[in-house]
Amino acid sequence: MDAAQLEISGMQPQDIEQVAALERRIFSMPWSVDGFLASLQSPDTLYLAVRDCGRVAAYCGMLQSFDEADITNVAVAPEYRGRGVGLRMLRELMTRGAGRGVRRYTLEVRRSNAAAIRLYEKLGFVSVGIRRNFYAKPQEDALIMWTAEDSYA
Predict the structure, then answer these.
(1) Selection from 87, 64, 69, 72 nearest residue 19 by Cα
(2) What CATH number is attached to the domain comprising 56?
(3) Catalytic residue check, 135
């Protein structure tokens, strides 16, 4: 299925079980159901889910602080990768964030995750530093990436 055919909308509490299951599939240190529920309830966060016939295929989220936001979660199910799902989803997140006053975005990404780094660079992110030993299981440094103001628009 083409990314344009998938539905992107705000994550709902009923999505959390599927989101947490996908999180466990992808990440070595996954967020819990309770962690997602707490984040979803905060007025400073925005979470999106991408659905294919009701099934969560991808999700992302951000934590806003004034006119900046930290993209905290980005996940695309392996069977949906390489189809533009992540790019479309993050563009939607950033567009909605701009509507909330966000002008700059930051995130961390594993140094070895070349595919994610290329995706973020397409969205205007640049590497500005390294967080040593940021990730565990396996231990790895993170690139710190930022957008310039309004660079994603």
Answers:
(1) 72
(2) 3.40.630.30
(3) no
